[in-house]
TrEMBL record:
Residue stretches of biased makeup (Basic residues): 396-412
Positions that bind ATP: 347-349, 511, 559, 582, 747, 827-829, 915, 921, 945-946
Bias kind Basic and acidic residues: ranges: 609-625
Top-level taxon of origin: Eukaryota
UniProt EC number: 7.6.2.1
Annotated Low complexity bias: 628-641
Gene Ontology molecular function terms on file: ATP binding; ATP hydrolysis activity; ATPase-coupled intramembrane lipid transporter activity; magnesium ion binding
Family: Belongs to the cation transport ATPase (P-type) (TC 3.A.3) family. Type IV subfamily.
Protein name: Phospholipid-transporting ATPase
Catalytic site positions: 347 (4-aspartylphosphate intermediate)
Subcellular location: Endomembrane system; Membrane
One GO-annotated biological process of the protein: endocytic recycling
Transmembrane segments: 239-261, 281-302, 1082-1101, 1113-1133, 1156-1176
Amino acid sequence: MIPGLSTTGNYTTIIPLLVFVSISIAKEGYDDLRRYKLDQVENNRETKVLHTYQSVGLESRAASGGRLSGEENTSLHAEGPKHWASVKWRDIQVGDVVKLKRDDNVPADMVLLYSDGTNGIAYIETMALDGETNLKSKQAPPTLAKRCTSEDDIASCCALVVVEDPNIDLYNFDGRVTVDEETLPLTANETILRGSTLRNTSTAIGMVINTGEECKIRMNANKSPRIKSPAMQVISNKIVVLLVVFVVLLSLFCTIAYQIWSENVEEKSWYLANAHVPFAQIIIGFIILYNTLIPLSLYVSLEIIKVGQLILMSDVEMYDPVSDKPMVCNTTTILENLGQVDYIFSDKTGTLTDNVMKFRKLSVAGYAWLHDVDLQKEVALLEQHHEAAEKEKSKLKGKGKGIAKRHSKKNASRSAPDRGTVSESSSSRILRSDSVRRSASLSLWKSSARPSKVQPEMRTEDLLKFMQHRPHSIFTKKAKFFLLSLALCHTCLPEVQESGEIDFQAASPDELALVKAAQELGFMVIDRPARSITLTYPGGPDFMEQITESYEILDVIEFSSKRKRMSIIVRFPNGKICIFCKGADSAIMPRLKLAPLAMEKKKEVLRRSSVRKSMEADQALRRLSENSPRTSFSRPSVSVSRRSRKSIGNGRSSMASARLQPIRDELDSWLKQREHDVDVEAGPEDLIAYQSPRTSMNRMSFASDRRFSSYEDDVHDLIDEDLVLDEASVFERCFQHIDDFASEGLRTLLFGYRFLEEHEFSSWKKLYLDATTSLVDRQKLIENAGEMIEQNFDLAGATAIEDKLQKGVPETVDKLRRANIKIWMLTGDKRETAINIAHSARIAKNYSEVVILDHKTGEVEQRMATTLLDITKGAIAHSVIVVDGQTLSEIDANETLALLFFDLVVLADSVICCRASPSQKASLVKKIRTKVKKSITLAIGDGANDIAMIQEAHVGIGISGKEGLQAARISDYSIAQFRFLQRLLLVHGRWNYVRTGKYILATFWKELTFYLVQAIYQKWAGYTGTSLFESTSLTVFNTLFTSLPVIFLGIFEQDLNASTLLAVPELYIQGQRNEGFNIKKYLGWMFMAASESMIIFFTMILEMHNKTYMSALGWLISIGGWFLWTLFLSAVYKPGKMYPLYPIKDGFIKFFGHDLLWWMVLALSLACLILLEIGASSVRKAFWPTDTDVFQALQKDKLIRQRFEETIRAEQEGGGEVEMAREKTSTQARREIEIQELLDRPRVMDGAVTDAEVVRSPVEMNESSVIRSASGSHLTRRKFSTDGHGRRGGATEEYELVARKSVPPKTRHSVDIAEILERR
């Protein structure tokens, strides 16, 4: 490389380096180009801007405006036609007037000028900004709204707008507008921010006040996002520094040795006269000779490995067919970080949840009911498709009537209810009344927070049938009034779709779920003019007549986060005035007529709940103590002994099975303990709330048990009218239901009502009108007025709404927690909602100690100190810290509180941060990333408010979901569903970590192994720096001869199966602890390299656990490539020319290639070193096995591997518990074969069968019922019949089994016919 100094030729180093650098440049350029294109997608979106004269072009735009010291002038004094021109977002300027249509995204921060909604209100969805699903109502300043009703009015309007400087505060805004010398304030209620969406409003017009990077959402983003690098690079950098020192020391040693050799030999040798090399030149020559020991191309060649890893990550299991989106990788730099994650920071709305609310349960008059109409419809459709497919299949198969076919048909028709398939509601055509179907419906819905909890509630279709059969009962009247309150107490607006169906516009998804539930239960809102609600509901003597009534709306007291309730006052058709109120139980309960009794019963319920949670916490603590430390999953009982490991996959199957069965049983028990969380069954006092009287049997029974008897006979016993009249019992049962609903992760609401006298309402109305028109403290006066009339309520009932999680979220959270990953939820939503979702997603458990830090209480420091002490002492089984954005700001402002806070959250199991701004999310991620050393953070979200924390974390993942693609574009990786995170981290993340670690180690190993030979050779070359290898071969050593084996190792290695990694997430801990690549492991590899300094590299294939054709191909190409290269050199070098030191021309063909000794030395060297590698690996695995070694041995066993695969399959299908299968004996196998042969035989139809020949029960068969052959020696045919249980008409089915006549009766194995029938 340096003429006159390089001992290895001029191009030995520079050519390979240029090749790898060129590849790296091309890869980085491609990544930048792809990100640029994604940015252009956002910038090139179009919106409508008010223009004059021209349809396009910004040069002559009339609506130029412009910012002048914070002032905007909306005057468009221009003549000519006005029109709305399409303008790209990137070309929007301050002062432009923008028109938005329904469901349009807001392109910039704007002041609202006009809206065609009711009372000039525009409904804005801010989910991408703050995570809240409720729509915000925005209203233009009244004076400005009157002047901006048309294009000409806007153009002629002269208004001065003064706004605040751009800042990050999403919740507040300060400004003013002056119109006709009248100045009005501008607040957050009159502004619309970029990132929000116009909903439920046809048209809205606004004026731009901030654009581009000055928008509030962009102000919250990172202006200069940091460059992300892999965590393994820190270790590899240390090793490179170590190698630099080693090369310098080795060069210095060889230089000193040369000086000694020069004095002793060179000066005394006449043929070496004038050959002495100065000290400076010889040391530089040695550094050049050994420089490849420092693999400068390692960082670049890693890019090749990661491109291959990226291709293999195109996993169909991470493809979402609903949205048609696969996993997308926007960078390959940090692939190995996916295998080392310690903290996950997740958004809530759109990331964990599906942004869909479903009405799930209700409690009325002391009885709880499950509402699963939506699930029934979905399953009924699936069943119809299944039956259609079966019919199509049967047509193709023909009309065979063998018993096997009949048996499979029965199984197929039964398979749907076994999986939880049920009929639709009573109003559906698909409804089936048999008791087996009804009992199967109990498994339709299960709580995501408590999946093991049995659902004892009756279904709402039972409620409707009871109301139909007992229309005049007290319970029916209460239930009807409660359903009426669902249909009336809301602000939804009905819309008739083109299909004729009625849909609703709702400001809150909770309200939408309630109104749709009322519709499904018969109370349908069909119209809502300005001051009335028109609805239809079933009535008449038998509830078959549809009654239409109109209720006058007198007033609506809106919901607010402070009030936690909303009320509506209506006038009934009979003239009565009633107020309906719904809200949190803490807000409604003190306002009940019998509030003292209600509070007493609530305390009893809380006491029982506290006892149950304490028991669960104790069990959890005992489990933790058995598996200490908390981050470890290994224990001696699970470890596989050396003797047992030898039997896995080797030897005779029967002997190996006997040895392995205890290991299988222990592994199965270990897995079950981790797959199922602690869940204490409810006590008798809790279950009383779900019991119904059975007067016919004079005992109490669960309502769910009724499904196994005739419904028509028991309909009158569903409800105890005496209990309905007992207020104390109703309160206790209702509050028990609410507590259970909340523990299942459902959002609960309590409904109350009261009838008002005319004079009472008239006097209150005057106060309320004064409050709504007041210019001072309007909101406070409205709240005081509402407080006056929202008193003395009667309890109507309670509801439970399910905030639908994305599929697989709870199971994924459980898996990630088992992988020792801590999960934080950072959201802009309300505290109650965040805690509720945390329970649903199992971030918080039923027995969790939820510690709420609220600056309003003034006890933040004391609360943190106490909790920190309890966690340190191990007194808390599972701790969840809840903090809001305002409290977090005060903590950050106080250094003492900040230190205490981060000491606490690092030890806590989970953290929930609610009401957090995007900048606060990013700040939390940054502090954990910097304060918790050697931790890898991952942030995942789907909205624009998540971009800052995604950029701040080590790994950023975007959900390409309903909130848009802003996060997906800016992230490192994007997935369509949160559940794919499980496979991305536990499988591909761990594989990439192991592959990259082995590739780096193998690269260092081969370099040291190869170049130590150069150092050893110097002893025989007088330490003159003479290279042992010919310079041309040395140049291509890294690129041609030794690249493929390590590249294939880094791309295709799979130390464990995907099913094993998913079934045992604890194996992920290897990456968190840096067990795959660390200094200790590096030194071990280097010791082997030093010991093997005389071998060639191609034994590297032994390191791969997953030996495939690709690894063999790389090995063969590398070895074959060397021989081809030798032949190539032998041919291309000029004949007759002398090549000192190296026999190049015809060297392999005529010289050493013909030397038998050379081949013997090669074979002997390879054999010895292969034995050394195998021996060292065997000793390590025998005496110092890792978790990976143990499970590599376990997964070779067929039954254990099947257990892992069935666990993953059960999770995907929502199945139940998985058991470890047992190996069948030879006798069991023979019996199964004989039964299958019997089932496969065709049915014999040889004549009529008399009743005497039919056995009514298989277990009552006697000699008279058996038809024997003419010889009477053995059984020829057995006939039996079964009654169709639950089948109307008492139909009887007959089966025949034909035995093989060649088999004597005494050797024939018995066939359990009853077992066959049970599978029907």
